Amino acid sequence: MNLLKIGTAALVLLAGLPAAAQKVAASKPISPDLFGIFIEDINYTADGGLYAELVQNRSFEYSPSDQGGWHPLTSWDYLHEGYAMGSLSVESAAPLHANNPHYVQLRVENPFQKGLGIKNSGFDGIALKAGEKYDFSMWARVKAGAVPLLVQLRDAKGTILAETTLSAKAGEWQQYRAMLAPNASVPDASLVVLVTGKGVVDLDMISLFPQKTFRNHPNGLRADLTQALADLKPRFVRFPGGCLAHGDGLDNLYDWKKTIGPVEQRVAQRNIWGYHQTAGLGYFEYFQLCEDLGARALPVVAAGVSCQNSGGSWRIGGTGQQCVPLADMAAYTQDVLDLIEYANGPVTSTWGAKRAAAGHPAPFNLHYIGIGNEDKQTLEFRERFKLIYDAVQAKYPAIEVIGTVGPSPKGDDFEQGWAFANQLNVPLVDEHYYENPEWFLANNRRYDSYDRSKSKVYLGEYASRGNTLFNALAEAAYMTSLERNGDVVRLASYAPLLAKENHTQWNPDLIYFNNSTVVPTANYYVQALFGQNAGTEYCANVVSLPTTVAADTVAASCVRDAQSGDIIVKLVNAGGSAQPFTVDLSRFKGMNSVATLTTFAGPKAAQNTFATPQAVLPQTKAYKAGRNFTYTAAPYSLTVIRVRGKRG
Ligand code: AHR
């Protein structure tokens, strides 16, 4: 028998379990950070997705190393309108910045009124809304004289939706800005820049942003997609991966320092998922997003080794793990320490000053850092992990480090990773698993027997291989177990989070989207219901599960939120017949009966898609909760009963 005793809480039997079940405390504090989100630039999550930039390949840095066939003019067309005479070339002799080596040169011999220029088709077209304002910007350089430019938004037929003129002056690189307000809403516009006078003009960083980004930040995030993330009420945000963090080979490790500062000076890089990362959504924007969401930041850095699947070695069973030479580990480790200083250091520190220069003098209050992602537990990995871990512990003892235990819920890397973490007393480890819904239902007791004296768990990636209601309910049942074990599972995040239509490399995902539509899946609504109804205390012995049905298909939890005083009961019925749950709230003193009842139910295979985006939606109504009551949960349903309680 595993006795859990927390504080002075009384020990009682957890109702709904067989007589031989473990005894648990009547209530126990659970992690205030339990449910969060995992952001990785996979499936066009960042560029073409969350990052609100509408111009694709704005800096002419696409190359075949990003994707076969890509080049500096990918997504651009050469516009040679009317009888205009001249030429276009891609140059690199005197760039805007060494980190941004390519630019376009337009040489106009005779514009013949219409001019000569380039047209960008965005990420599958540029979606524009009438009545909204868009910020255009561009860097240009003209050798001599002033050259007139015409900037237009055009629809797919070439109709002009908005336009403005600019005059590029002779001299060095200079940034030009304008505001464009289209007169129609279209899903597939393009941005045109025409040189309408004789001359030679160099162009780079041609950009178009909606003014309405999330919280209206410049260089900001797409408002509708980010609002969908905010609605999950995440307590933390993990970034930038996933495999993206440890990269495809050493030259592809995610280097946070290359993602901050003016966007034209950031270093673009090949994305491990086969496209291009501008780093426009970089570490500053990630920290800012966390702050906007009221979530803790959880950056993950490579443990001085690349992904073991580097170079496509997964095809032959790995290991393509590449290691930072030991001679370079001091510098690599310093980069990790600098990251913490960037987030938390005073403005007088080297890296805190850079944060302040970006417009955020106050610290971001970083508390967690992940070191490594699903890494093969080689000696080389361990040696490097320990160097980084020791350095972080020594300089920043208040930071909680998260280690890594492989890509599966069991196996060699899992066992060895856990043993290594316990040996070093790593505060938390990052478990990952993608399994069938039946696995999630059958493994509801996984964490009940975890040793509370060892490292705690961050369930950093999990999903049940599908987006049906049944998948979502299997995850909901599992999440009740995460709440029950919220003392040992401190953090959990579904993965992956976002996937763009026609660019989805990994299924399932939590949210699907295209340029104008956001489709939250059934799994999303489960995450949202748990995030919006999180608690700070787990209350055992409140819900009795139905006894007439296979235990695997039903699950329940009861939590209390100390801030509001509300009691929240969650009932999951992942089976095909209605089931009675008994709820006993009699121990909560001063509780009133005013409650809300949210049901999320439907056919087992129901699924939200672009064609049927609202196939399953939660429904909320007022409810009167008795002190003792039986609630019959519909087939295939999650029910959340939130009872107004007493604060304190
Ligand atoms: O979530 C997608 C991928 O799955 C992550 O990049 C990786 O960590 C895991 O294998």
Your description of this structure?
The chain is built from ten helices and 36 strands. The radius of gyration is 27 Å and the shape is globular. The protein is α+β, with helices and mostly antiparallel strands and 648 residues long. The protein has three domains: 37-51 and 214-515, TIM Barrel (Alpha-Beta Barrel); 76-210, Jelly Rolls, CATH 2.60.120.260; 536-643, Sandwich (Immunoglobulin-like). Alpha-L-arabinofuranose (AHR) is lined by residues 40, 42, 241-243, 373-374, 407, 432, 461, 495-496, 506.
Observed structural traits:
single chain; 17% helix; Immunoglobulin-like; alpha+beta; seven-stranded antiparallel β-sheet; Jelly Rolls; binds alpha-L-arabinofuranose; disordered N terminus; eight-stranded parallel beta barrel; globular; TIM Barrel; 648 residues; 3 domains
User: Which term fits the overall shape?
Assistant: globular
Which CATH-level-2 architecture of the largest domain?
A: Alpha-Beta Barrel
Beta-strand percentage?
A: 25-35%
Low-confidence stretches: 1-24
Helix amount: 10-25%
What is the fold named in CATH at topology level of the largest domain?
Answer: TIM Barrel
The small molecules bound here are: alpha-L-arabinofuranose
SS summary, helix count:
10
What's the CATH class of the largest domain, please? Alpha Beta
Provide the structure class.
Answer: alpha+beta
Please give the alpha-carbon distance between the first and last residues. 33 Å
Cα radius of gyration in angstroms? 27 Å
* Averaged pLDDT: 94
- Which strand order spans the largest sheet, edge to edge or round the barrel? 4-16-19-20-21-22-23-24
Give me the count of strands: 36
Largest sheet: 8 strands, parallel, barrel
Tally of individual domains: 3
CATH superfamily of the largest domain: Glycosidases
